[in-house]
Q: What sequence folds into this?
């Protein structure tokens, strides 16, 4: 899976970069999250130890991704940390995705937590089909990658394909994560030239941003990509919060189980030679591990508003099935309500009993009993 996110020849360089302070991330009152490059500090001894080729590849990553803007520089930092700590993947169900799509994140940035520094969520096929039909496009992200950075900044990436990502950085210049997520659509491409602001000034950089935005939208999914990014990145943040609330447990490698456990046995074998052990160690460390919730709950509630005659008490006809949004919030508790804790208010599926088929299957129709629409 890592090979899809970043070419394998750069993995060692990215892992090495994680121990280097090459990116200075700061919070600007006007522009939000911003980055400044720092020179790669490396001694002669370290150069001899890791090799010139690795350092050159690391330098290429820094130059290439920084040239794309602050968000993509943070994406490179995110992948660097994910490789160093070991990739962690969560595979939700389509029904869970649909519930959390309808859940707002009304919490301040400082209260946001996720179980690991970097979390990958794999969008299930049934939910991707739901999005294809709803938005009338085949360009649907298959992964969303979420990381929490310095200053409570959240970096979230919707992965459409190799070298085809929408990276959004959300910062505490907004009151809540919900406000930042909704604002991300109108702020697209706004950080491509952040590294140049101090040298060129805001007016020049903003003009460059507008020109590039127009060109990018001609050659991609345009605004729709950012709409889908908002939808899927909402999932990434919400699932990270749910993992924090419910706890998670490791359930094994996401793929190539036989190879993974073979390498584990090599590492445990006292008679294996050092070359084979080193290869096995590198393979095990790069293996994407699958995680699941430590406890299972229903992610939504249902509500049947009809009376036995098919109408609501005030005489109106029964409504069509629809969602009432849920949300995360901080709730007061403890002595004199002096403490705060994160709680999940579940979304509600109204009239689910007349929704025919799977909730994520939008090819189904709503119908009254015995009547198709």
A:
């Amino acid at each position: 899976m890592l090979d899809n996110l970043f070419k394998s020849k750069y993995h060692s360089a990215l892992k090495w970069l994680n121990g280097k302070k090459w990116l200075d991330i700061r919070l600007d009152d006007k522009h939000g999250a911003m980055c400044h490059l720092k020179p790669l500090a490396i001694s002669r001894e370290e150069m001899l130890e890791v090799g010139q080729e690795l350092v050159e590849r690391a330098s290429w990553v820094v130059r290439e991704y920084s040239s794309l803007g602050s968000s993509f520089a943070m994406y490179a930092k995110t992948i660097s940390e994910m490789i160093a700590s070991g990739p962690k993947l969560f595979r939700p169900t389509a029904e869970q995705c649909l519930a959390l799509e309808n859940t707002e994140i009304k919490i301040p940035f400082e209260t946001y937590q996720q179980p690991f520094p970097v979390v990958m969520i794999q969008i299930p096929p049934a939910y991707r089909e739901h999005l294809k039909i709803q938005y009338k496009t085949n360009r649907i992200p298959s992964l969303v990658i979420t990381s929490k950075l310095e200053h409570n900044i959240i970096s979230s990436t919707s992965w459409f394909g190799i070298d085809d990502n929408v990276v959004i950085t959300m910062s505490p210049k907004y009151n809540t994560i919900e406000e930042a997520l909704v604002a991300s659509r109108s702020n697209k491409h706004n950080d491509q030239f952040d590294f140049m602001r101090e040298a060129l000034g805001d007016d020049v950089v903003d003009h460059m941003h507008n020109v590039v935005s127009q060109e990018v939208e001609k050659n991609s999914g345009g605004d729709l990509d950012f709409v889908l990014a908002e939808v899927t990145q909402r999932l990434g943040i919400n699932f990270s919060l749910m993992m924090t609330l419910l706890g998670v447990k490791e359930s094994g490698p996401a793929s190539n189980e036989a190879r993974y456990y073979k390498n584990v046995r090599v590492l445990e074998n006292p008679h294996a030679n050092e070359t084979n052990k080193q290869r096995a160690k590198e393979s095990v460390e790069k293996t994407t591990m699958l995680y699941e919730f430590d406890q299972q709950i229903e992610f939504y509630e249902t509500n049947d508003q009809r009376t036995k005659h098919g109408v609501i008490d005030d005489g109106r006809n029964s409504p069509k099935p629809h969602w009432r949004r849920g949300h995360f919030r901080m709730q007061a508790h403890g002595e004199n309500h002096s403490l705060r804790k994160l709680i999940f208010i579940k979304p509600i599926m109204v009239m689910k009993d007349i929704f025919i088929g799977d909730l994520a299957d939008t090819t189904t129709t709503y119908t009254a009993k015995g009547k198709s629409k």
Q: What stands out?
A: Confidence is low (pLDDT under 50) at residues 189-201, 204-221, 307-315, 361-373. The chain has three domains: 2-247, 251-293, 301-372. The first strand starts at residue 23 and ends at 28.
